[in-house]
Predict the 3D structure of the following.
Amino acid sequence: MAAVAGGQIDSVMQEKRLFPPPKEFAAKARIKSLEEYQELWDQAAADPPKFWADLARDELHWFQPFERPLVWKEPFAEWFAGGKTNVSYNCLDRNLAAGLGDRTAILWEGEPGDSRKLTYAELHREVCKFANVLKSLGITSGDRVSIYMPMVPELAIAMLACARIGAIHSIIFAGFSAEAIAERNRDAEAKLQIAADTGWRRGKALPLKETVDEALAKSPTVQKCIVLRRGAVAGLSEADGAGSGPGSQTPATVVSMQAGRDFWWHELMEKASAECPAASMDSEAPLFILYTSGSTGKPKGIKHTTAGYNLYAKKTFQWVFDHRDDDIFWCTADIGWVTGHSYVVYGPLSAGATVLMYEGAPNHPDESRFWQLIEKYKVTIFYTAPTAIRAFIKWGDQHVKKHDLSSLRLLGTVGEGINPEAWMWYHRVIGGERCPIVDTWWQTETGGIMMSPLPGAIPTKPGSCTKPLPGIIPEIVTPSGQPVGKNQGGWLVMTHPWPGMLRGIWGDDDRYKEVYWSKVPGKYLAGDNARCDDDGYYWIMGRIDDVLNVSGHRLSTIEIESALVSHPSVAEAAAVGRPDELKGEAVAVFVTLRSGEPNDALREQLKKHVRHEIGALAQPDDIRFTGALPKTRSGKIMRRLLRDIAAGKETVGDTTTLEDYSVLAKIRGDEE
Ligand code: WTA
């Protein structure tokens, strides 16, 4: 391994395990072999706009056919220009027309154990009614609607109702503070707020409406607020008699309703008509804004539009999850994140799938809740995040073993790199060694999955997201835009527009150009480092800003972390650089333990272990044991904050997206 110029990154990871798709799985798959995948990929790469246009004609309903597949005025894309369609129509009416009205669209379980089921016909009816409610409050095409709700079917209903009339939703994860809601509401100039009175989390009712009241005091553009009564588990389940379980929970908080501004969801719905034709929307009409926080500065309102996003969410869902009619698909992400937008709602529903939605925490009432749900609903495809997998490992196999998981046929992961040993555990303990794992790399900005194994076609390697999907053309370059060689780490870029790509940052074209298109001219800069191996497999190496520079060698965070996680005592690890006079940066790691005592002997053992696994250069200089790592609300490790702590800085940067503020104090407390 030699020091390299030009910002490339040295890979020190050696992962040789290969898992071909099980024969039986491949035989029934949509794409059955590596050759078939390659053929499709080549065909798409030869003429991406034509490839996508052919799919768009078949996969979406067009009120008016489009004229041009792609108009590209870098960095602004228009896909399927001149066409008119509607995302809610594609998710609902199109399925009804295909005779799927009686198929279950949403299976839902609340944290307290209440449950509901909605067929496509029922969902269609509720969406039409709620679309009429929106209209009755003066919402029209192009208006922004802010949504702050727990994981209940009404959240999906609200989204689809917005899409039906051309209103643009901005969903804010129901864990964010009043300040965060207000900032987003002001940026989007939202006209309406949709909220719930409460949401359940680990047995407690969160006072969501209280937070919203505080936010609305600072959201001058918001005129009205619709409030769902979740505390009482009201609404659909009572009206349709479809509910079961402890549906009579009384609201834990007394909700104050401001006359003239606040309206109860169920009261408005009582009067609403169930007739509401879907509006004919331009292909490029904005569908939603979703705020994502960069490491610095104010959150970026990522803008997605109608036809391209819809097609991309649907096709990637079908390819990556190899969807079949009898699947029960469970994506555990909250709808407040892009994963929930694309793979709880828009992707699966446009494909006519049955999804499971769960409201609460994975460890309530105990650590076996997810496994109990898989058994109860006979889930066939399970899609979750590495942070959850690491928690499951820490909690122990005994919680899994109590349940029958034989319905599962495919597993997926998203959100961070998965450490190979966590991958192996997922494969063995959850997948019973029979389920392929799709490690899906993508971003809020990309709209849908960009790189992932196709489970019947592409052999997997633990820790690699394998290959780009058809129509996606990645490249790895130096900061000056030169392609790097095989096995060299560098900046991951996309060389061609794709239908699911963001269309901009809400209200800030300059920032859009600057962040994604200025550093490597003509290419989309993802902000991640990656390398491509001899087999053409991609390995994500972490965020560009997180690279460590040790004695002139640029090292990837995930590789050091994966080496630590492969030690039996380690549950989670985060590696950061700390300023060092001699080496430029020293390797500082924060470790949470699965077993064993946090002492010097273990510290030495872990250093040796890393040295043995990936080499002397990556051996940690500092190892700090801690009870928990600081994470974002979507579960990503916030290495930036740890970098400040490792450097001994008193104050750490922006912490507004931190999930649990006490963690930082604890880490400081854990220091000797
Ligand atoms: C990281 C989530 C490695 C990556 C859909 C990306 C991953 C950021 C993976 C986007 C993966 C996501 N392997 N890293 N399979 N998936 N990431 O916007 O750094 O919440 O740029 O979208 O998460 O996060 P976002």
